[in-house]
Amino acid sequence: MKSKRDRLLFRTHEPPFQKPEWAVGQYVEFNGKVHRVTRWVKLRPVLLERGGSVGEWEVWGRAVSDKELSEEVARAAEELLGPE
User: Fold this and answer.
1) 35 with 26: CB under 8 angstroms?
2) Which residues contact 54 (CB under 8 A, 6 or more apart)?
């Protein structure tokens, strides 16, 4: 049985509003597995060597089972094709 807990997928310097493909609820591939993004966590700004700083965020998600992914694909296809 797969864990329903989320885990840290990756860190980024790009803010959430610039990455809609990583928005909460979206699917992302990480280490060869599909995950659903569950949350973003804003970290302290990273200080740059030449001065200034840049924002940093963590992107968290949970693994998606093959069954769950198949159901989502079927639902999306049905939504695109409409009623028969």
Assistant:
1) no
2) 13, 45, 46, 48
Give the helix ranges, DSSP H, for the chain: 66-81
**Cβ atoms < 10 Å from Cβ of 22:** 19
- pTM comes to 0.79
Domain that holds residue 16: 7-81
> Which segments within the chain are labelled E, that is strand?
7-12, 27-30, 33-42, 46-47, 53-54, 57-63
Q: How far is CA 66 from CA 4, 55, 58, 59, 73, in A?
A: 14, 34, 25, 22, 10
Eight-class DSSP state of 48: P
Q: Is 49 within the bounds of a domain? A: yes
The answer to whether position 28 is within a domain reads yes
Walking along the chain (84 residues) 10 residues at a time, the average pLDDT comes out as 78 94 93 94 95 96 91 86 73
